[in-house]
Amino acid sequence: MLKNDSKNLKTPESRRASMLEISNTLLLRLCSLRYLPSQTLSEAALAEEFGVSRTPIRQVLQQLALFGLVESRNGVGTVVTEVHNERALELFGIRKHLALLMSEMVDPSRFPRAKERMSELGTVAAACSQERDIQQFATIGIRIQKIILDTISSVEYRRLWEECYYRSCRISYSIVESDWMLSTRLQLEEISDLVAVFDSGDPKELAQLCNRAIGEWIVFAKRIHAAQTTDSNDQSFKELLQEFSVRD
Question: Which of 15, 59, 127, 148 could be stapled to 9 by a disulfide with Cβ–Cβ 3.0 to 4.6 Å?
Answer without folding.
Answer: 15
